[in-house]
Amino acid sequence: MRMRHRTGTAVAALALAAASAGTALATECEHDENFLTTFHQGGMAEIAAGKDAARYAMLRCTRETGEVLVTDHTRLDNQLRTLAKRLNVTLPSSTTPEQQQEIKDIGKRAGTRGYDTAWLKAQETAHVATLKLMDDEVSGGKDRDVRAAAREARPYIERHLKLVRDCSRKS
Question: Which residues are registered as beta bridge partners of 147?
Fold first, then answer.
């Protein structure tokens, strides 16, 4: 049975090395589905924001951080899609309207220091929220593979937050 999908914001990430290939979603847990959906949309937003930063940021640090986000979130989102497909979870095909608007608003400052400042602030907020989302999944999720994926992806999100904060201090 297909589970209804929910939308949310945050950053996506999932490493599936430990996930067992034949496991089906043990229970139709809305918590796990919300986590997968939110991570997926967050990952798509991070990829779009990272591409924008690589093009429009004034600071080298911001551009390089954007490139890291694109690389990591592309790989992690591919892994997320594999897990969601195996669990029969339908993922949305686009980011949320709020995410789209935030990227558009930040983009209005393209080529200025204000762009870097706004981009870094948005990334810090998103990564802090994503870490909380991951911790909530690890402690409250029902599916062991989804919980494991959240645990395994956490170091990537921590690294991204560190890069963003380090870059903010340099600006």
Answer: none
Could you give the CA distance from residue 29 to residue 158 in angstroms, rounded to a whole number?
Answer: 26
Distance from C-alpha of 14 to C-alpha of 39, rounded to nearest angstrom: 8
- The alpha-helical segments, DSSP class H, found in the chain are 30-56, 60-86, 97-107, 113-140, 144-170
Structure tokens at 95: 């980011």
pTM of the full predicted structure? 0.82
Instruction: State phi, psi for 89 to the nearest 5 degrees.
Output: -105, 125
Whether the pLDDT of residue 97 is over 60: the answer is: yes
Phi/psi for 96 (5° steps) reads -75, 160
Residue 121, Cβ neighbours under 10 Å: how many? 13
- Stretch 146-169: mean pLDDT, rounded? 97
